[in-house]
Write a structure and sequence with these properties.
With 100 residues, the chain is an alpha+beta fold. It has a domain at 7-75. Helices cover 13% and strands 26% of the residues. Strands 1-2-4-3 form a four-stranded antiparallel beta sheet, covered by helices on one side. β1 (7-15) and β2 form a beta hairpin.
């Protein structure tokens, strides 16, 4: 049995400061029956190939089935937060459905 067969990766790239390079964000979701912490830690290690990256884990530590990996976070474009304008434009519920 392949321990990674129940592992899904969603990836996206984003421009870095200067516009020449791109960073990458990857979301790993494991739905199998093995220990998710062990499977995800190995998958992230193999994915990052030793390159420095940031590994994000659920803040409440109650979701061991997901990891988020972000590369080149220090080279991302930075700007001040504006609480009037910096909002997700379409509110969603916890299940990903649009809110009424």
């Amino acid at each position: 049995m392949n321990k990674f067969e129940d592992l899904i990766i969603s990836e996206s790239e984003y421009p870095l400061e200067g516009g020449e390079k791109k960073g990458k964000i990857a979301v790993f979701i494991y739905t199998g029956n093995l220990n998710p912490t062990i499977v995800l830690e190995e998958a992230v290690r193999l994915y990052s190939k030793g390159k420095e990256c940031h590994r994000l884990v659920d803040a409440n530590l109650d979701n061991p089935w997901m990891r988020v990996v972000v590369s080149d976070i220090n080279d991302m474009y930075q700007r001040p937060f504006n609480y009037e304008n910096d909002k997700i434009s379409t509110p969603v519920t916890q299940y990903g459905q649009k809110a009424n």
